[in-house]
Amino acid sequence: MHMKSSNYWIFLTSSAVLCLACDKNDGTRNNNEEPLAETHVQNAETGGHDRMGQGHKNDQDRVGTEAKATIQAAEGVNIAGNAWLIDDGSGVKIVVDVGGAPVGEKGIHIHEKGDCSNIRGESMGSHFSPEVHQHGLPGMMKDDLHLGDLGNIKIKDDGTGKKEITVDKANLKEGDANSLLGKSIVIHQDEDKGAEQQPSGGSGTPIACGVILKT
User: Fold this and answer.
1) Which residue of 31, 186, 188, 192 shows the fewest CB atoms closer than 10 Å?
2) Is 36 exposed, middle or buried (0-12, 13-18, 19+ CB in 10 A)?
3) What secondary structure letter does DSSP report for 15?
């Protein structure tokens, strides 16, 4: 009788331990599950990555939404690279990284169409300006400028160039008037001279283009 009682208590104790283990693991991620998504964008100065945000996304919260554009060259030009974009809820941070490019200051803009099929023929359309403002350089205008005016990207002697800028009024929200999704990032052959040369800064023929797509 004493032996049966002992076995009974051992059984109860083992069951309780198992139940506590079940409760502890309930609702948590095991080692085989994917971690929460962390969004990154390449650092313009170091070539590393700065964390810009993390967490779940839904229709009401666009924070952390990312996009990318693969930069392709116009015929007869050697240039290639990528652009990374991330929406932090108050604007879009853009980092452009290119190589093999002709040396000098080059105008860089967001254009209104996601079409790089004829870069020199400007299949990407005009500068993106949903509110139809004047052209200008970021930080140099009293009034609002084109939402797509990113200024210039400096190409060094080794053909590499990086540009980092935040466009405050832009977003990556599908269907929104100020969304950069489905637009193009375009690099021109000459320097953007700003508001003194309307309507596009006199930066000349486009030499590279990349369509902005959500990742």
Assistant:
1) 31
2) exposed
3) H
HSE, side-chain direction, 13 A CA sphere, residue 196: 4
Q: Domain 40-214 carries which CATH code? A: 2.60.40.200
Here the tokens at position 160 are: 């590499």
Whether the per-residue pLDDT at 13 is higher than 90: the answer is no
Write the single-letter amino acid at 176: D
**Which pTM was predicted?**
0.69
Give the C-alpha separation, 149 to 130, whole Å. 12
Pairwise CA distance, residues 67 & 119, whole Å:
21
**Is residue 96 a contact partner of residue 163, using CB atoms and an 8 Å limit?**
yes
The single residue listed with the structure tokens 């939402």 is 147
- Residue 133's pLDDT is what? 77
Task: Identify the sign of the CA torsion 151, 154, 160, 163.
Answer: negative
Q: Using an 8 Å Cβ cutoff, are 109 and 126 in contact?
A: no
Q: What is the DSSP letter of 57?
A: -
Provide the token pair at 30.
Answer: 């095991």
Which residues are paired to 179 by β-bridges? Answer: 171
pLDDT at 64: 84
Three-state DSSP at 23 gives helix
Q: How many CA atoms lie within 13 A of 58 on its CB side?
A: 2
Q: What are the structural domain ranges in the chain?
A: 40-214
The two structure tokens encoding residue 42: 């390449």
Amino acid at 160: T
> What three-state secondary structure class fits 17?
helix
Question: Could you tell me the two tokens for 67?
Answer: 């996009």
Contacts with 18 (C-beta within 8 Å, 6 or more apart), sequence order: none
